[in-house]
Amino acid sequence: MSKLVAFAAIQGGYNIVSKAEGIYKRALETYGGSQKLEFPNTAYYLPIIYSLTGIAVKDLDSAKQVMEFCRKLLPPHIKKDFHLPYLGPLLDAGMAALFAEEIVEAIRYVEDPDFYQPEMEDPDVDNGKIWLGAADDAIMRKRGVEFVDGTAPGFAAIVGAAPDPATAKLIAEEYQQKNLYVFMAANQSGTTFTEQLLEADVQIG
User: Fold this and answer.
1) Three-state DSSP class for 103?
2) pTM of the prediction?
3) 3.40.50.2000, 1.10.8.190, 3.30.160.340, 3.40.630.30: which CATH number matches 3-111?
4) Three-class SS of residue 155?
5) Tell me: the pLDDT tens digits for 78-87?
6) CA-CA distance, 188 to 202, in Å (whole number)?
């Protein structure tokens, strides 16, 4: 694996965890440790954290253990003259970033409960609500059947944006023709894949 790629990914893990620590500290000071942390209308704990660590995050107090674990997971920075197999440290940095981001998302529901489109799969573009957020139990039951019976053979995860809206449209339509679900996240150069699809008049939701 490229040392440059490993360096950038590990540095990214540090940046994400540090950002999450700041958000967590602010939330703790604002709402107190008893503030619940959950994804609305779900019967599960924060799923990535719980499935991989067994830690049941119920409130800001219980999230402290996860934040401390994230910091411990971060590997040493890669030095110029330091050579080793990078995959293990890289995976640790990635897991730390995933756990930290899940805490950030849970806090977002506390700080900005109207950010996501609630309990619906279709976006409300006029009001700027184009993100679904964590799928609630009703959506999981409805869509889960399609993955079980083969109606939806799989999904594609798209992180960041395409070079332009036309390219985004081509990519999305190719996946739609294959009955694949497309999960979109993050931004690049000030835009997102979702916003590019809206600009290209592609139906989302």
Assistant:
1) helix
2) 0.83
3) 1.10.8.190
4) strand
5) 776 655 666 7
6) 19
